[in-house]
C-alpha cells in the first residue's frame, strides 16, 4: 500500500492556517479548512487531523493540558522550526505556494486584502502592486494569528468588537523587521489601548501586569479614571498561544514607555 505523504509545501500551508485559527476550530467542518483541503488535494478530515498533529508540538497547547493528536512527523517539526526562525519569509512563501496552486486549478487569484487594519509602512511607499499585496498578506497573517490567540478580545479591557480591535506590535514594526510577523510580538488591544501602548503611555511588566505612565496617572480626568486607572497593576488576559515574549516587553519599557524615554 502506497502512503500518500504530505509534501513540504502542503505542510507549510497547513501550519500557516494553524497559526490563524483558534484551537477550538481545528475541525473538518471549518470553512477555511474545507477550502484549503480542496486546494491541496486532501480531505477536510485529513487536514484537520494534521492541524491537531501540529498542536501536539505547540508548547502553549501541551502546557495547558491539551495534547492534540500526538502524531506529529519529523517534517511537521521541521516546518514548525522554519516558521519560528523566519515568520516573514514563510508567510510570503505560503502566499506564493497558495497562488501557484490556485493558478494550477484555474482559479482566480485572491486579492490578499487584509481583514483588519493596515499599517502605514514608509518603506513600501511607491512599490509595485505585488509588493503591496505582500504587505497586506503579512499584516493579515499577523492580525489573524494574534486575534485568534486572544479569542478576539482585548487583553486589557475585554472588548470583543472586531472593528475596534488592533493586533498591536510590542516592538514596533519599523524597529525589528525580523519579528514583525512573530505573533509573540503581538497583543490584541482595543483601538484606545493600542494607541496608548504605541505612544508609551502604558506598558507591561514581566508578569504581564499593566503599567501606567506617571503622566497618565496624574491626569485628573473622568475618562482616564474610567478607562485607564483601573488597569494599573492588573494582569492582562493571556492568549491560548503565542504568549508575549518577555524580551519584547522589556524592549517596549526601555524604548517606548515614556517614563523611561
Can you walk through the features of this model?
The chain is mainly alpha-helical and 261 residues long. It has two domains: 8-104, no CATH class; 122-260, no CATH class. Helices cover 45% and strands 6% of the residues. The protein is built from eleven helices and four strands. The chain has helices spanning 8-20, 31-40, 44-55, 59-62, 74-85, 87-104, 129-149, 191-198, 214-217, 222-227, 246-255, and strands at residues 165-169, 186-190, 202-204, 210-212. A two-stranded antiparallel sheet has the order 1-2. Strand 3 (202-204) and strand 4 form a beta hairpin. The longest helix has 21 residues, at 129-149. It is elongated, with a radius of gyration of 20 Å.
Name the overall outline: elongated
What is the distance, rounded to the nearest whole angstrom, between the alpha carbons of the first and last residues? 65 Å
Proportion of β residues?
5-15%
Order of helices and strands: HHHHHHHEEHEEHHH
State the major sheet.
2 strands, antiparallel
The level of helicity is 40-55%
State the helix count: 11
Counting DSSP E segments of at least 2 residues, the number of strands comes to 4
Derived from helix and strand composition plus strand pairing, the structural class reads mainly alpha
Task: Name the descriptors.
261 residues; mainly alpha; 2 domains; two-stranded antiparallel ribbon; 45% helix
How is this fold's topology laid out?
Elements: H1 8-20, H2 31-40, H3 44-55, H4 59-62, H5 74-85, H6 87-104, H7 129-149, E1 165-169, E2 186-190, H8 191-198, E3 202-204, E4 210-212, H9 214-217, H10 222-227, H11 246-255
Antiparallel strand pairs: 1-2, 3-4
Amino acid at each position: 500500500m502506497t502512503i500518500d505523504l504530505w509534501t513540504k509545501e502542503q505542510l507549510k500551508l497547513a501550519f500557516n492556517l494553524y497559526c490563524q485559527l483558534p484551537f477550538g476550530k481545528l475541525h473538518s467542518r471549518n470553512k477555511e479548512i474545507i477550502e484549503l483541503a480542496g486546494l491541496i488535494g486532501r480531505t477536510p478530515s485529513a487536514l484537520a487531523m494534521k492541524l491537531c498533529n501540529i498542536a501536539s508540538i505547540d508548547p502553549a497547547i501541551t502546557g495547558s493540558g491539551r495534547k492534540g493528536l500526538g502524531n506529529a512527523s519529523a517534517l511537521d517539526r521541521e516546518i514548525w522550526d522554519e516558521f519560528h526562525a523566519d515568520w516573514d519569509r514563510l508567510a510570503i512563501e505560503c502566499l506564493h505556494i497558495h497562488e501557484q496552486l490556485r493558478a494550477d486549478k484555474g482559479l482566480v487569484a485572491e486579492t490578499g486584502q487584509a481583514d483588519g487594519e493596515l499599517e502605514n509602512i514608509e518603506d513600501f511607499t511607491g512599490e509595485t502592486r505585488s509588493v503591496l499585496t505582500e504587505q497586506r498578506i503579512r499584516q493579515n497573517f499577523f492580525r489573524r494569528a494574534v486575534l485568534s490567540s486572544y479569542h478576539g478580545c482585548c487583553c486589557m479591557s475585554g472588548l470583543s468588537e472586531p472593528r475596534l480591535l488592533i493586533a498591536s506590535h510590542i516592538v514596533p514594526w519599523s524597529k525589528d523587521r525580523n519579528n514583525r510577523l512573530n505573533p509573540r510580538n503581538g497583543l490584541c488591544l482595543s483601538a484606545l489601548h493600542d494607541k496608548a501602548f504605541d505612544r508609551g503611555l502604558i506598558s507591561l511588566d514581566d508578569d504581564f501586569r499593566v503599567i501606567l505612565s506617571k503622566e497618565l496617572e496624574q491626569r485628573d480626568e473622568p475618562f482616564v479614571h474610567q478607562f485607564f486607572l483601573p488597569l494599573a497593576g492588573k494582569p492582562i488576559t493571556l492568549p491560548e498561544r503565542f504568549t508575549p515574549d518577555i524580551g519584547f516587553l522589556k524592549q517596549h519599557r526601555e524604548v517606548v514607555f515614556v517614563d523611561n524615554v
